[in-house]
Write a structure and sequence with these properties.
Elements lengths: L4 E8 L4 E8 L11 H9 L4 E9 L4 H12 L23 H14 L27 H17 L2 E3 L6 E3 H7 L11
Antiparallel strand pairs: 1-2, 1-3, 4-5
The protein binds zinc ion.
């Protein structure tokens, strides 16, 4: 293996939907892909999926790999794909590559560290100690709580039956329920 990583494309022969991604490693290391929607479909009918290697990346550089992946993401047909975010670095979509990696990095960087308050029972200090008494006045807090629950009442939260995402009705109607990407898979 003389390459750093590669860009791949899976194609679902039942509907021609594709999934494009990049991977740092060998094409034979067993890696399939990380997209939530793609994996759901792949696990259901892996025999219908075929993978193509779109490009190898030889530069020993993760940024370069993402850059090349982005080139392919920019040309995806967004009406017929399992890709969920148009960004090789992931995005705000929950469970995307970015957030998974972020989580992993975070937990790794904290591994082996001793919590600041370990063994110091009774020594915990309230976060707001020393702040002026009216910094978070009681009235203010109650008022905020009341407003928030009123807003929540006006905008009921609903759950998409296809992907189980919960959110405010207005926003959810745009991309979920009849428009949910998961609908046809289930
Ligand atoms: Zn949904």
């Amino acid at each position: 293996m003389n390459y750093f990583g590669f860009i791949y494309e899976w194609i679902d022969s039942t509907n021609d939907k594709n999934y494009v991604g990049s991977h740092k490693g060998s094409i034979n290391d067993g890696y399939i892909g990380s997209g939530k929607l793609f994996k759901l479909a792949y696990n259901k009918r892996s025999e219908k999926f075929k993978r193509e290697i779109l490009e190898y990346v030889y530069e020993n550089n993760r940024e370069k790999l993402l850059e090349v992946e982005q080139k392919y993401l920019d040309n995806i047909n967004w009406n017929n794909t399992y890709n969920l975010v148009p960004n090789a670095r992931g995005g705000t979509v929950k469970g995307s590559k970015q957030s998974e990696e972020h989580r992993r990095n975070n937990s790794e960087s904290h591994k082996g560290q001793v919590p600041w308050n370990k063994g110091k029972t009774g020594l915990q200090i309230a976060w707001n100690i020393g702040l002026p008494g009216n910094f978070l006045g009681r009235e203010h807090k109650i008022e905020t709580r009341k407003n928030m629950s009123e807003i929540a009442k006006l905008r009921p939260r609903v759950k998409c039956p296809y992907c189980n995402k919960i959110g405010q009705q207005n926003a959810m109607m745009k991309h979920h329920f009849d428009r949910c990407k998961f609908k046809e898979l289930i």
